[in-house]
Amino acid sequence: MDWRIYHAFNVWASEHTGVAHATDVLMNVAIVALVVGAVALWFAARPGGSPRWKLGAASALASGALGYLVNQVIHAIHDRPRPYETHDVAWHPYASGTDASFPSDHSSAAFGIAWGVFLIDRTVGAIFLAVAAVMDVCRLTIGAHYPGDLLAGVGVGLFVAAVVVYLGRPLLAWLVRLVERLTDPLVRPLWRRG
User: Percentage of the chain with pLDDT > 90?
Assistant: First the structure.
């Protein structure tokens, strides 16, 4: 099933190379947007106000990093080759990695960020989840991963975000209070002008 879905996307992308190139660009924009969006969420929080967005930003970045680290452990245990390493017919001009395919590092980190925000603020988090989903479809379209690799990344992202938000909340709240002592004085003048 994994190969059939991958192959269908792959054949379509090979017949629409302009769209595939645009998809590669969109994927890179989505990745940057998730990271920049998480940082922006911190600075969008009113100094001295509710810490919710700061907690969302902190949990997003922590979850993204933890998702990537968890993947490295999984890769050491199970090294699934990339689709184009196993199937000579795979079209992949925008994907050339030879690291383990399962689970997708991009997906785990992106969904770690997105779930990290979502578990703190559902409305803003839904936007992050939509961007992460677009990035996942792009990874499939450019031929980098099987669908199962991407779905596993969604699961890893959710798992690590739940650990960070629910188990690591006291540490996260302490870190937010510590860092906002540095950032709030910088942001406060901008809030007064606005």
Answer: 79
